Amino acid sequence: MKIIAGILLFITAMFTTLGLASILKAQENPSVSDIQKAPPELSSNQVICDLSAIKDQIAQQSQEFSQEMRQIKREIALLRHTMEKPGLKEVFAGIGYIFGLCGVAFYFSARKKRNSRNSREDRSNAHS
Question: Is the pTM of this model over 0.85?
Answer without folding.
Answer: no
